[in-house]
UniProtKB/TrEMBL annotation:
<feature type="domain" description="Xylanolytic transcriptional activator regulatory">
    <location>
        <begin position="789"/>
        <end position="864"/>
    </location>
</feature>
<feature type="region of interest" description="Disordered">
    <location>
        <begin position="555"/>
        <end position="582"/>
    </location>
</feature>
<dbReference type="InterPro" id="IPR015590">
    <property type="entry name" value="Aldehyde_DH_dom"/>
</dbReference>
<dbReference type="GO" id="GO:0008270">
    <property type="term" value="F:zinc ion binding"/>
</dbReference>
<dbReference type="Pfam" id="PF04082">
    <property type="entry name" value="Fungal_trans"/>
</dbReference>
<dbReference type="GO" id="GO:0003677">
    <property type="term" value="F:DNA binding"/>
</dbReference>
<dbReference type="GO" id="GO:0006351">
    <property type="term" value="P:DNA-templated transcription"/>
</dbReference>
<protein>
    <recommendedName>
        <fullName>aldehyde dehydrogenase (NAD(+))</fullName>
        <ecNumber>1.2.1.3</ecNumber>
    </recommendedName>
</protein>
<dbReference type="Pfam" id="PF00171">
    <property type="entry name" value="Aldedh"/>
</dbReference>
<keyword id="KW-0560">Oxidoreductase</keyword>
<feature type="compositionally biased region" description="Low complexity">
    <location>
        <begin position="555"/>
        <end position="572"/>
    </location>
</feature>
<dbReference type="GO" id="GO:0004029">
    <property type="term" value="F:aldehyde dehydrogenase (NAD+) activity"/>
</dbReference>
<dbReference type="InterPro" id="IPR007219">
    <property type="entry name" value="XnlR_reg_dom"/>
</dbReference>
<feature type="active site">
    <location>
        <position position="269"/>
    </location>
</feature>
<keyword id="KW-0539">Nucleus</keyword>
<dbReference type="InterPro" id="IPR016163">
    <property type="entry name" value="Ald_DH_C"/>
</dbReference>
<dbReference type="InterPro" id="IPR016162">
    <property type="entry name" value="Ald_DH_N"/>
</dbReference>
Length: 1147
């Protein structure tokens, strides 16, 4: 691709392009051809002052916007950057010589804007009530005008990494781009930040900023030389913070200027002389490939390139020879040509600097490759160069060269090489290659650098990690999760509020008890609907709270609560659906459609990540007759949630609160054994020995002395264990009449007894209360009381917060063993919260993006998890749970209202993360490794969670493939088919695990988990069968139904077993084993049922549950890409509908 005809080279100030005030320009030459590319306007002192003034004027209105309103501009700019990737790559190649093949900056920069668009609400202050009578707060506020000065080697990425976090928290910016690469950054951008970028890139990006609609003055971009514009920004009194990436010399000047002016905080990311240490046990091929790429990439013009390599003497000869061959393979040429991966240095100054260092190197070390400029081409090229045996005190070992020049030295011992690696004034990046984990950890701690790569090297960095340098390589850190945001925020502290209200009464009503309210926001349950409109600020809320305390609160009149009606809907659904509630605010209506839907029976809002709306979308395939296709119809059988009967009265008629009922001891033992084997193996709440001792004490001493929380826990356990005690004996042959005679109470009775104790459990609010609520939540979920289960789970987590369990807090009297128990309970709540919230489509109550968790995982050396739970199961499960949360947040919850697609790189990264989790789990937890009988269920459940997470990620694309097959292009279709195959593969793997569980007698119907897994894979097999009509997918459906029927028919399992065949019959997939299931459809009948399917029609529910892919990664169609290999599944998984019935085209 050639250069664009019109290249923007002017300054971008206050939303407009303008020439420099003094008319000065400077030339930009193509470093490969030495031809003039453009004349770029050079910012003067006056221009710099105008840019700062524009940013200052824009700050009040920009900072007043909410983060989500700022984010709209971010998303638009990110999209424009991706669309203009080719032009940006061409400008960068022409201005500083980066080959087109190595250009990733536009997509990487766009991902930064997308990331920070979602992070504005992560900025929060703190509160303290330690001063009696006061509420003390900290407020995190933007500085105002901040400046950014960026280098020329990766300008777009540096621009995005600095501007996006500064802007999202409310600052305005002046950006100064480098005089060496101004074109890509110079696109019209309107940001209140000043930075230095390559002029061509800066100008192009400024144009995109203008198109994105940023308000004038928010982003200002100027280009020029550091001794003018850079110096002015550093000294400027209206610039309140400055971020700089560049050389150490310039960083020192900027820091001095800031100190001499207004003491503005300065964040510096400076140069490096990064070492890479290669031990003889390393994978030598990987080490050579990665270390050679590090120094050769971008022609060595990278601050963290490993320009010093230390290799152990026993492998030195082989390593150097391989390294030499790898460097020789570099293709030098015009960066605008395809296949070139080694371009010129950025300009003449840089070229001469590298040549000067090469001459020094020849005097101090042994040159074995390169060593100068190629003689056969013009331009500022440098040959890839290798020196060996260079003295540690040589100048080329001490100073940053910024070219494709590496020094390889040999070492013998760890102590020797650690001292040499650290013998530098730089400390930006360091790497170590070894298979010895102990050595790797020693070097990770011992190397003096801001980033340490173990078996990897630069430019690899942690996406969610900070970046910065030790020693002279910088001051401060940039990056995630909050480092860059914090750099652009200042803290206001000690805002004190003193309010006096009458809160209660002591003695007569005329004798008020005075107290000081120390809260600015009061949560009052069940406020009248119209009252919400009066909640505008802290003073209003405190007034409402006072009115509630005084008893003078009045409900608003009807006129006060009236809201505008919704737009008139089609009358077709009036007969079957209740009228939808009026939205309180417009955003609620906006969120409703993409993120979830309502149950037809008004049982609540269901998030899109739940399987409930997905199952409904699958079951409505081809049915365009639904009157309200955006509402989930209720089940065909049963009432949900079921009406729980009152408990059976005790024999003596006493109240449960006076004398706790206990079942016969034999029944108790049976219930507990069921609970421990089938539930506690995954949800740990008690040390088994302690638990059994407490049960023994409860039976031997008076039960009336037990706490309500303990008895609520026992009743919940009894309810779980007795869940299938009273089912039909044909379904449960193991239960005999004598067994049923042991206990006259059913699971429903024990649920009722447990619920009667809930008020007392709330009052006790201690660790047993948490256990009771969580276990009761498990029992209720299996009885299809989804909302109640979620509420009890929430109460358990809130109690855990109040006890400081997320902060690893313990009473002073607590023992070390109790601390370990509390830790294990906390992480059990973490997992259970995810499961119950996800199955019901509700938000999790534990969100690590907003909540800092200090509680470590428990030590299994101190606290043995029990005979039914393998070691390391909890830590492995927690890591998978975090992955699932990331999938839900990324794919389902954080898409914008109108987003119908998701980036390919996002999905592929999540898929690879799942794959790596599976590769890294401990060997004894792998499913194909023989496990003790007592561990089999825990291991199986772990892997069902893994395959369920894979299905959760891939199912929207499988649904999209089935519904929109004929509209997909051939290249895109490949990826949708691979995502579909991955989803089907996960379902088949799940079915195999469930079948093995059935063979081992481990399938359980006393929790909802097993039935949920079966229902999940049935839906996937339905889609596979609908798409291909291949008989083995139908066989998989039947096998899944057989497993359901083989389970004890109680609770959720019973509902699924009865409901699923009915839904299948609606789709024409009838059950041959049921005589009244209807006629088994042949090809012609199926064609009649599904033949009128329109690929351009999707119900709102199907639209919500399916996703398109946006290919934002150049490697998407690379046959050697890691993600392509991962999804290259075996041939037994067929998804090509070429065998479709001849009479119709279901695509």
């Amino acid at each position: 691709m050639g250069l664009p005809e019109n290249i923007e080279t002017r300054l971008f100030i206050n939303g407009e392009f303008c020439e420099s005030s003094n008319g000065k320009t400077f030339d930009i030459k193509n470093p490969a051809t030495l031809k003039l590319v453009a004349k770029v306007h050079e910012a003067s002192e006056e221009d710099t002052d105008r840019a700062v003034a524009a940013a200052k004027a824009a700050f009040p209105s920009w900072s007043a916007l909410s983060p989500d309103k700022r984010a709209v501009y971010f998303k638009k700019l990110a999209s424009l950057m991706r669309e203009n990737n080719d032009e940006l790559a061409t400008l960068e190649a022409a201005s500083m010589g980066k080959p087109l093949a190595g250009f990733f900056d536009a997509f990487a920069g766009a991902s930064k804007w997308d990331y920070y668009a979602e992070s504005g609400y992560n900025v929060q202050g703190a509160t303290s009530i330690q001063t009696p009578g006061y509420l003390n707060m900290t407020l995190r506020q933007p500085y105002g005008v901040v400046a950014a000065i960026i280098p020329w080697n990766v300008p777009l990425l540096f621009l995005s990494s600095k501007l996006a976090p500064a802007l999202i928290v409310g600052n305005t910016v002046v950006l100064k781009s480098s005089e060496k690469a101004p074109l890509t950054v110079g696109l019209p951008i309107s940001v209140s930040v000043n930075m230095m970028l390559k002029p061509q890139q800066s100008a192009k990006l400024a144009t995109l900023v203008q198109k994105a609609g940023f308000p004038p003055g928010v982003i200002n971009i100027i280009t020029g030389f550091g001794n003018v514009s850079g110096s002015i920004l550093s000294h400027h009194m209206d610039v309140r913070a400055l971020s700089f990436t560049g050389s150490g010399r310039t960083g020192r000047l900027i820091q001095a200027a800031a100190a001499k002016s207004n003491l503005k905080p300065v964040f510096l990311e400076l140069g490096g002389k990064s070492p890479a240490v290669v031990f003889d046990d390393a994978d030598i091929q990987d080490a050579v490939k990665q270390t050679a790429y590090s120094i050769q990439w971008n022609s060595g013009q990278v601050c963290m390139a490993n320009s010093r390599v230390y290799v152990q003497d026993t492998i030195a000869e082989k390593y150097i020879e391989l390294f030499k061959e790898h460097m020789k393979s570099a293709t030098m040429g015009d960066p605008l040509e395809k296949g070139v991966d080694h371009g010129p240095q950025a300009d003449e100054v840089q070229h001469k600097t590298v040549l000067r260092y090469l001459e020094m190197g020849k005097e101090s070390g042994d040159l074995i490759l390169g060593g100068g400029a190629p003689s056969d081409r013009e331009g500022y090229y440098i040959q890839p160069t290798i020196f060996t045996n260079t003295p540690e005190d040589a100048q080329i070992m001490k100073e940053e060269i910024f070219g494709p020049v590496v020094n390889i030295n040999v070492f013998k011992s760890e102590e020797e090489v650690l001292e040499k690696a650290n013998n530098t004034e730089y400390g930006l990046y360091a790497a170590v290659y070894t298979k010895n984990i102990d050595r790797a950890m020693r070097f990770a701690k011992g190397l003096e650098a801001g980033t340490i790569g173990v078996n990897c090297t630069s430019p690899t960095t942690g996406k969610d990690m900070p970046f910065g340098g030790y020693k002279s390589s910088g001051v401060g850190r940039e990056g995630e999760p909050l480092y860059s945001l914090n750099n652009f925020l200042q803290t206001n502290a000690s805002i004190q509020v003193l309010i006096s209200v009458s809160r209660g009464y002591s003695g007569s009503r005329a004798d008020p008890v005075e107290c000081r309210v120390r809260v600015a926001i009061v949560h009052v349950p069940a406020l009248p609907a119209g009252l919400l409109r009066r909640v505008g600020n802290a003073r209003t809320i405190i007034g409402i709270a006072k009115s509630i305390v005084d008893g003078t609160i009045t409900s608003p009149t009807l006129q006060e609560t009236t809201t505008p009606p919704l737009p008139e809907q089609s009358s077709s659904g009036d007969d079957d659906c209740p009228q939808e509630a009026e939205p309180v605010v417009e955003s609620v209506k906006d969120l409703h459609e993409p993120l979830g839907c309502m149950m037809k029976d008004s049982r609540g809002y269901i998030g899109a990540h739940s399987e409930i709306p997905f199952n409904a979308a699958v079951c409505s395939i081809g049915d365009q007759s639904l009157k309200s296709p955006n509402i989930i119809t209720p089940p065909k059988v049963g009432s949900y949630p079921p009406a729980l009967p009152t408990p059976t009265p005790s024999a003596d008629g006493s109240s449960v609160t006076e004398t706790f009922h206990l079942p016969p001891r034999k029944a108790c033992e049976y219930y507990i054994s069921r609970f421990l084997e089938e539930v506690h193996c995954n949800y740990w709440f008690y040390s088994i020995e302690t638990f059994l001792n407490r049960v023994e004490n409860t039976y031997t001493s008076s039960a009336s002395s037990a706490s309500s929380s303990w008895m609520c826990s026992l009743y919940s356990i009894f309810a779980i264990g007795a869940a299938d005690m009273h089912v039909d004996s044909n379904q449960s042959p193991m239960y005999t009449a004598s067994m049923l005679a042991l206990d006259d109470k059913s699971a429903i009775d024990y649920i009722a007894l447990a619920k009667q104790l809930i008020p007392a459990v709330y009052d006790e609010a201690e660790i047993d209360s948490i256990r009771a609520l969580a276990i009761l939540s498990i029992a209720l979920e299996n009885l299809c009381s989804r909302v109640t289960s979620y509420l009890y789970m929430g109460a358990a987590i809130q109690m855990a917060y109040s006890l400081g369990m997320h902060r690893d807090q313990m009473p002073e009297s607590g023992s070390a063993m109790e601390r370990e128990q509390h830790r294990r309970i906390w992480w059990t709540l973490f997992i259970l919260d995810q499961e119950i919230a996800s199955r019901g489509g509700s938000p999790t109550l534990i969100d690590e993006r907003l909540l800092k968790i200090d509680t470590p995982l428990p030590s299994e050396q101190m606290l043995y998890p029990g005979m039914h739970t393998p070691l390391a199961w909890l830590s492995t499960s927690v890591s998978l749970c975090r992955l699932k949360r990331e999938i839900i947040q990324t794919v389902y919850l954080e898409r914008s209202t109108n987003a119908r697609n998701i980036s390919f790189s996002t999905v592929s990264n999540l898929l690879l993360s799942l794959q790596k989790w599976l590769q890294l789990i401990p060997p004894h937890l792998k499913h194909d490794v023989p496990a003790p009988p007592t561990h089999k269920r825990a291991v199986a459940v772990l892997h069902l969670h893994y395959w369920g997470s894979t299905i959760l990620l891939c199912r929207p694309f499988l649904l999209y493939l089935v519904l929109k097959y004929s509209t997909l292009g051939s290249s895109k279709k490949i990826w949708f088919e691979r995502m579909g195959k991955t989803c089907i593969d996960a379902a088949q793997k799940s079915l195999a695990i469930l079948q093995q569980m059935a063979a081992d007698g481990m399938l359980s119907s006393i929790t909802a988990f097993d039935s949920t897994c079966l229902l999940r894979i049935v839906m996937i097999f339905i889609l596979a069968f609908a798409h291909t009509r291949l008989p083995h997918y139908r066989s998989n459906i039947e096998a899944s139904i057989d497993l359901m029927r083989g389970m004890k028919q109680v609770g959720f399992c019973k509902m699924v077993t009865e409901e699923t065949p009915m839904r299948l019959a609606d789709l024409g997939i009838t059950d041959e084993k049921v005589s009244n299931a209807g006629v088994l459809l042949d090809d012609d009948l199926i064609a009649q049922l599904w033949g009128n399917f329109d690929p351009n029609f999707m119900t709102p529910l199907q639209t919500q549950q399916s996703l398109d892919l946006a290919f934002d990664d150049s490697s998407s169609f690379d046959l050697n890409s890691e993600i392509l290999q991962f999804t290259n599944l075996d041939d037994s998984i067929v998804i090509d509908p070429s065998q479709a019935y001849s009479s119709f085209d279901f695509r």
